[in-house]
Structures are given as C-alpha cells and as structure tokens.
Amino acid sequence: MQRADHFIDLLKELVRTPCVVGAEHAFFRALQRELEELGVQVTWYEGLLVARGRKPGAAMFSAHIDRHGLICTGPNEFQYAAFVAGHRSDLLGNSVSEKLMTKIVNRFQGVPVMAYQPWAGSYLGAGVIEGAYVCEYRNNLIFEVDGLAHLVAGTPVAFRDRLSIAGGILSAQLDNVLSAAHLVHLFALGYQGTAFFTAQEESGSSWRYLLEWFRRFDGGTERLLVLDTSPYPDRAAADCQDVVLRRRDVNADFHPGTTEKLEALCQEAGIRYTFKDAYIDAQNQLAESQGQEPQSLGSTELGRIVAASRGFVQGTTLQIPTTGYHTMEESATVLASNAFSRLLVLWAERAGAF
Predict the structure, then answer these.
(1) Boundary of a domain, candidates 127, 159, 191
(2) What does the alpha-carbon distance between residue 193 and residue 223 come to, in Å, rounded to a whole number?
(3) Of 152, 183, 202, whose CA–CA distance to 345 is shortest?
(4) Rounded-to-integer distance, Cα 348 and Cα 165, Å
(5) 242 and 283 in a common domain
(6) Judgement on whether residues 234 and 99 belong to the same structural domain of the protein
(7) How confident is the model over 293-303, as pLDDT tens digits?
(8) Domain count, the chain
(9) Inter-axis angle of helices 25-37 and 177-188, to 10 degrees?
(10) Are residues 167 and 41 both part of a single domain?
(11) Which of 12, 229, 247, 273 maximizes the CB count within 10 A of its CB?
(12) Of 105, 124, 159, which closes a domain?
C-alpha cells in the first residue's frame, strides 16, 4: 500500500528542513503545509502540532520531531541545543554528566551547519564545526564554528543534512524525522485518525505538551502508539528485527493489552520483531557476569507521560531499529522502514481509521 516514491521524496524534504530542539517552529510550518495539502485539519499548541482526519478518535499516533543541533549563546559561541533547552548546567544544579559530554565532544568534528530564523526557517548563514571543548568554568560543552560569527544569541544552528540511500540503507539524522515522515505518508494513504507531533523530546520536555493536550480535553487513552527510532550498536544487531517493541522503559510499564495487540499484528503480517527491554535485560545479564556496568532501560516519551499522568495516558511504542545513534550517519534499512509502514497501516485499518 505504501507509495514508495512519495514517501522518499517527503523524507528527503523533511530531512533538509531544520528542526533543532527548542527551535521547532519552522519544521511545524513545513509539516502544516504538507498535511493541509492532504486535507488534514491541523491545530497548533505550545510544543505540539495535532493533525486530525475525519475519525480523530479511531487511532492515535505520536512522534517527536526535534533533532539535535547547536544554539548561539553569545558572540561566536555555540552550545549543544538539547542541554540549553533542557536547562542543564551547573548553575542550576542539573549538570550534564562528564561521560555524556565526552561522548559528544568529538562526534560532530567537521560537520557543516546552517543557521536559521527559528520561526520562519529563513536561512541565516552556513559554517563548519571546527571542534568542541568543555568549558572548565561552566562545566559545559562549547562548540567552535567557523563562518557564523555574525549570529546573535538565541539563533539555532542545524547540522546540514541530506538523505542518503545506498545498498538498501537510509542514512541521515533519522531520529525522529523518519517517524514524522511515516505519519504524514500515512495520511497520504487515507488515514483519518489523529497524529501528534511533539517538540523538545531530546531535552526531555515533549511529554508535558502531549499530556497537557489530553488534560485540556479531559480524556485519557490506553491506545496511544508512540513512534521513534531505536539504537543498536551495529548493523548485525539492528538487522535481527524489522521493528522494535517495548513492554516498559526506565520510567513505567506500558499498557499490556495494547502491546500484545501490536505483537499479534506483527505475527500476522510476518514482520520480525523483538522487545527492546528484553534485549537490554539480556545484555545486562551478560555485562554483570563480566563485571561491566549495566545499560539503562532507556527513557521514552511514552514512559515519561505514563509515569507523570499515573496511567491517565497509556499505550505502547513502535520503533525502527537504527545504527549510528545521534549522528549524521544514523541508518535504517529500507526493509525495516517498509515493515514499519505496513504495521502502521494494519494498526489503523483494524482501528477503523481509514
């Protein structure tokens, strides 16, 4: 049922559209244009764009749309946008860990970037990341960028991104523009339910905007399906499944009935799946036997909203396995992307959302 050419063209366009965490308005505008051309009703709220068809209560999907980037914080000074948007600095007693900063400090060496006007998305200049260092006085990560000395504080700076397709592999900063493209494409296929597009997930805030929407209309749910990518250490590990399910994350257990229904659809459609929490548990057992540090179960948008709402908003997750987490070379197979699309269509069909 997937219109492959339409999906790839859409994904290419959305990948090129900047969406730095904390400065997502321009991307929301791009989504609004795409959705309204399909006849979808679009409503903006703070940190949230809601797209609704003719049967808005039939099914509900959610995907965050923010991506990593930088923000200008002073004359020729740039910081990691997720840290700024999440108010993470020693000044507030919520510092970024040294381990996390060490991971990021050399990740984007030589990456081309572009500055943009945060509301309209207008181009404000281009540059290249020359390096990064930890400021000893602020215990914060500072990026050195060549070519953007003219910017004023508060200007978002996106990693310049293009979709690459080679050998059956999609590559770009896919988290989470890939899921957003799938939802727009689902409307193009005739979907008439609801889709939520949330901001600031990478800084840990997106769940607030989504929960506020449900409380605004005094209606909870147990059928929310949250879409995302799911990182794996290498292609061999990622290719063990077409899609990734979860029963829980570090914050909360997910709705068992909804999770079981999604698992049954995978079995019916012959789509290979695994549970990420079970995978991490197995990895941790191995790590413990070798005296190594265990991994976290991970924190998801759904887990945060389930915990904060005490189950008022519930559901499960559906994720695409990727490699190259939070880099410009994050990759997913075309086969996994197609399986993800098939599952979304099946879920919506069974819910009567077409």
Answers:
(1) 159
(2) 12
(3) 183
(4) 28
(5) yes
(6) no
(7) 888 999 999 99
(8) 2
(9) 20
(10) yes
(11) 229
(12) 159
Name residue, tokens 């990622």. Answer: 238
Q: Are 114 and 126 contacting, i.e. CB atoms less than 8 angstroms apart?
A: yes
Asked if 176 and 130 sit in the same domain, the reply is no
**Residues 167 and 242 grouped into a single domain:** yes
Nearest to 90 by CA among 127, 47, 137: 137
Q: Find, among 62, 23, 24, 322, the residue nearest to 174 by Cα.
A: 322
The answer to whether the pTM exceeds 0.90 is yes
Tell me the C-alpha distance between 152 and 136, whole Å.
23
HEC string for 76-134: CEEEEHHHHHCCCCHHHCCCCCHHHHHHHHCCCCCCEEEEECCCCCCEEEEEEEEEEEE
Instruction: Name the phi and psi angles at 198, rounded to 5.
Output: -110, 155
Q: Which domain holds residue 277?
A: 4-67+163-350
The amino acid sitting at 78 is F
Checking if the pLDDT of 224 tops 70, the result is: yes
Say yes or no: 298 and 206 in one domain. Answer: yes
**Same domain as 43, residue 97:** no
Interval 184-190 mean pLDDT? 98
Looking at residues 263-283, what average pLDDT do you find? 97
Residue tagged 């070519």 (tokens): 147
Q: Which tokens belong to 37?
A: 């051309």
Sheet holding 313-322, edge to edge: 41-45, 48-52, 194-198, 60-64, 221-231, 313-322, 243-245, 273-275
The residue type found at 166 is A
Sign, CA dihedral 139-297-71-173, equals positive
Do 77 and 121 sit in the same domain of this protein? yes
Per the listing, tokens 């887990």 go with: 303
For residue 238 the two structure tokens come to 């990622």
Mean pLDDT across 95-115: 79
Is the pLDDT confidence value at 272 over 60? yes
CATH at residue 299: 3.40.630.10
* Those residues with Cβ within 8 angstroms of residue 212's Cβ, 6 or more apart along the chain or in another chain: 45, 46, 48
Given a cut of 70, is residue 98 above it in pLDDT?
no
Rounded to whole angstroms, how far apart are CA atoms 130 and 198? 31
